[in-house]
From TrEMBL:
This protein is one of the chains of the nonenzymatic membrane component (F0) of mitochondrial ATPase. Residues 294-457 form the Lactate/malate dehydrogenase C-terminal domain. Its main location: mitochondrion. CDD domains: ATP-synt_Fo_c_ATP5G3, MDH_glyoxysomal_mitochondrial. Its EC number is 1.1.1.37. It is a multi-pass membrane protein. This is ATP synthase subunit 9, mitochondrial.
Amino acid sequence: MKKRDKNSQLEMLEGAKSMGVRAATSVSAGAAVGIGNVLSSSIHSVVQNSSLAKQSFGYAILGFALTKAIALFAPIMAFLISSVFRSKDWSDPSQQPNYRAHGPWKPSAEANQRIARISAHLHPSNVQMEESSILGRTNCRAKGGAPGFKVAILGAAGGIGQPLAMLMKMNPLVSVLHLYDVVNAPGVTADISHMDTGAVVRGFLGQPQLESALAGMDLVIIPAGVPRKPGMTRDDLFNINAGIVKTLCEGIAKCCPNAIVNLISNPVNSTVPIAAEVFKKAGTYDPKRLLGVTMLDVVRANTFVAEVLGLDPREVDVPVVGGHSGVTILPLLSQVKPPCSFTPEETEYLTKRIQDGGTEVVQAKAGAGSATLSMAYAAVKFADTCLRGLRGDAGIVECAFVASQVTELPFFASKVRLGRTGAEEVYQLGPMNEYERVGLEKAKNELAESIQKGISFIKK
Ligand code: NAD
Ligand code: LMR
């Protein structure tokens, strides 16, 4: 009897287990939601415990019944809720919560202006929007009391582009900042636009919005393109970046032919000649307005020389001439200000470190790109000198890679004076020592090839 009792108890347990498992399976499979998981785990714990065997049959039935109930009532509840929502027309103002208290809502002129201001960065400007928007281009502070220039950054969502956009938003000389990229421009624009500085920020995404991004710009900064990875030269970027720069410069020729262009995309020694050829083809080329950005070489040179001399880098001025790649980067250490002298070892160390500065960062980043933060800093420093030149400030001199007659090459980096029309004067290289003269010959050999490669890319 006892044995039979035990057997029947075991049979009951097995039966309950199998029903419980079936119920649990049907709950999990049918519901696949939190409630289903909770039910299935409680049923499972009951069937595991033999002392609860007698209760388990009851629990299994309870679980089974609950499952069926959920399965039956869920669609009915869903139908009832959705019909309540469908019955309200939310676009009808009379059905909106505040209608009865205040009547139909009419935006005041002030509210309209605020809405336009808030949404300016979300809806990239185009001619139509400019005409209809309350915050049209003509109403912007760009043309208002606060003097300011209109600046576009092409490639604004990239490693350089983002910090560059942030720093340009902080520049008091900028009143309108256009951020263009083929990816993520709205996100970067929304983010930057919350900064409480004077410039109005607008975002532009993808080729169809390029022309709107460029229309009316005073200065266009181009960091668009792929960066190096370890083991690559800047010239390895040519195949991709040449096409990107060509397309962007065609847009500039069409929409803002008088803008100053700061070209950052590598290889600068070739991309500047590419841009020049595009502008020539379009009939808009003004050599004074096209500047290859070599400022990072100067920034590095000032820093490394200051380290060796034990000075504040802000007190140091090192001219860096030639181009922007390997041996074409030629620091003129004999012309450092304040005047100083270096041992041959120091000269060799500093020259090499300045020439390899970009590679030092590429290797340290180990595949995650090249210099971005120091480049954004250098780009803003250079853009600021261009804007101050445009404003008419006197004595603005920086190094840049420009159309030049300083050597026999058509382009060369040297000190230039920036004025209202761009690079108004290109300075001679000045007295050089023997070490620098040897360096100059090496630089010219490599530069000649890179320049020709850029020219041929457009002329082919
Ligand atoms: P990145 O890849 O982080 O950013 C490049 C950005 O360009 C990306 O957001 C990308 O979407 C955008 N882009 C690509 N194609 C585009 C197009 N057709 N139109 C608009 N945007 C486009 O690269 P990064 O680190 O910012 O470097 C950008 C370039 O600057 C590289 O070529 C790099 O070698 C060069 N660079 C130059 C200097 C210099 O001293 N001149 C210094 C550092 C880097
Ligand atoms: C630099 O000098 O940091 C840039 O030209 C990027 C690179 O590829 O080195």
